[in-house]
Amino acid sequence: VGKGRESAAVILDNWMKGRRKAVWISKSDKLIEDAQRDWSALGMERLLITPLSRFPQGKPVTHAEGILFTT
Q1: What are 8-43's pLDDT values in tens digits?
Q2: CA–CA separation, 69 vs 62, rounded Å?
Q3: Phi, psi of 3 (to 5 degrees)
Q4: Maximum distance among all alpha carbons in the chain?
Q5: How many whole angstroms separate alpha carbon 16 and alpha carbon 14?
Q6: How far apart are CA 21 and CA 68, in angstroms?
Q7: pLDDT for position 1
Q8: What is d(CA 67, CA 11) in angstroms, rounded to the nearest whole number?
Q9: Residue 40 and residue 33 in contact, taking contact as beta carbons nearer than 8 Å
Q10: What does pTM read for this prediction?
Q11: What is the full DSSP assignment across 30-71?
Q12: What are phi and psi of 24, to 5 degrees?
């Protein structure tokens, strides 16, 4: 099991306990596809992982739940 899969499992454990917000910090923005793959391998929807770059700088992130991916 790799580091990404372990990170996804920790987030999933918290998710199942009702904590529906997480921040996934990675070495490179190119690794978002790997994060989405690891998350979906655990049976979850890959679109729950959203890159921070999708939000305008200086504006609040308005998602009620999900995983924010950043570097």
Answers
A1: 999 999 999 999 999 999 999 999 999 999 999 999
A2: 14
A3: -60, -40
A4: 37
A5: 5
A6: 8
A7: 77
A8: 9
A9: no
A10: 0.90
A11: GGHHHHHHHHHHTT--GGGEEEGGGSPTTSPP--SSEEEEE-
A12: -105, 110
Name the 3-class secondary structure at 26.
Answer: coil
How many residues are present in the chain? Answer: 71
Angle CA 12–18–24, to nearest 5:
40
Please give the Cα distance from 6 to 34 (Å, whole number).
12
Q: In what order do the strands lie in the sheet with 21-25?
A: 21-25, 66-70, 49-51
For residues 35 and 26, is the Cβ–Cβ distance under 8 A? yes
Euclidean distance between CA atoms 35 and 10, whole angstroms: 13
Tokens of residue 55, six digits: 């939000």
CA–CA distance from 49 to each of 13, 15, 19, 32, 40 (Å)?
16, 13, 15, 8, 10
Q: How many C-beta neighbours within 10 Å does residue 70 have?
A: 13
